[in-house]
Recover the amino acids of this structure.
């Protein structure tokens, strides 16, 4: 949930407008009617064992589409990420762990696909050195207990072994919150997490 004021950011494309679109405003956090936050990442930290990873539907991929990142928020396991340019313009996709570069690649051609390795868990901010307004987030995790919230802000993390855990919820505008959660055998644990700016 987010109870604060939703701030807007103005996007003013200064090049490639035929692909990237024109001037517009976008909310920095998407909040539904019941204050639920869409596209927040939620995950447990430091879980050493438990359920197996779900079979991957496809390889983790970050697409540049109409000068946006698609998806703009995703959670991936440590390992390979494919970065794809679907636009007929140059993108220079640049990922950071904090201030440190995680990857930096020029993709001048439409259909170009370069893979990179994200070996460390954590938040990776992605921007484009060619289009300063582009922003995406990749949360790299080392265990399969994670979820992205839906449009109503809800999420489920299934099959968590009984125990006490640290849970992180994060959204790019608010930043992270961390809280303890205790899971008992055979029954669901209901949580309300408030993201604050
Ligand atoms: Cu770009």
């Amino acid at each position: 949930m987010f109870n604060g004021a939703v701030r807007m950011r103005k996007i003013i494309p200064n090049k490639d407008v035929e692909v990237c679109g024109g001037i517009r405003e976008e909310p920095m956090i998407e909040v539904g009617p019941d204050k639920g936050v869409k596209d927040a990442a939620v995950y447990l930290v430091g879980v050493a064992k438990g359920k197996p990873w779900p079979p991957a539907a496809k390889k983790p991929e970050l697409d540049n589409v109409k000068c946006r990142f698609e998806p703009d928020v995703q959670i991936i396991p440590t390992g390979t990420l494919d970065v794809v340019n679907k636009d007929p313009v140059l993108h220079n996709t640049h990922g950071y762990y904090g201030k440190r570069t995680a990857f930096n690649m020029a993709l001048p051609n439409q259909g170009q696909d370069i893979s990179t390795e994200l070996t460390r868990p954590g938040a990776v901010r992605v921007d484009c050195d060619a289009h300063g307004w582009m922003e995406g987030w990749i949360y790299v995790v080392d265990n399969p207990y994670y979820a992205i919230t839906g449009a109503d802000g809800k999420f489920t993390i299934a099959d968590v072994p009984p125990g006490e855990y640290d849970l992180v919820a994060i959204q790019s505008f608010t930043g992270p919150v961390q809280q303890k959660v205790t899971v008992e055998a055979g029954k669901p644990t209901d949580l309300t997490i408030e993201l604050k700016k």
